[in-house]
Amino acid sequence: MKSSFDVVVIGAGPSGATAAARLLQDNLSVLIIEKTEFPRFVIGESLLPQCMDFLEKVDLLDCIAEKKFQVKNGVSFYHENKTCDFLFNERYTDGWDYTYQVKRADFDLALLEEVEKKGAIVHFNSEVTDVKTSATNQHVFYTNSEGQQVEIECKFVIDSSGYGRVLPRLFDLNVPATSIPRGAVFAHVKDDKRSEKASANIFVNAFNNNSAWIWSIPFSDGTASVGIVGEESYVASISENNGAEFKNLVKSFPGLNGRYAETEFNFEPKTILGYSIAVKQLHGEGYVLCGNSTEFLDPIFSSGVMFALKSGYMAADLVAKQLDGESVDWDTEYDEILLHGVEVFRSYVDAWYNGDLHTIFFKENGNEEFKKQICSVLAGYVWDMSNPFVKKHKRILGTLAKVIRLEN
Ligand SMILES: Cc1cc2nc3c(=O)[nH]c(=O)nc-3n(C[C@H](O)[C@H](O)[C@H](O)COP(=O)(O)OP(=O)(O)OC[C@H]3O[C@@H](n4cnc5c(N)ncnc54)[C@H](O)[C@@H]3O)c2cc1C
Question: What pLDDT is recorded for position 1?
Answer without folding.
Answer: 65
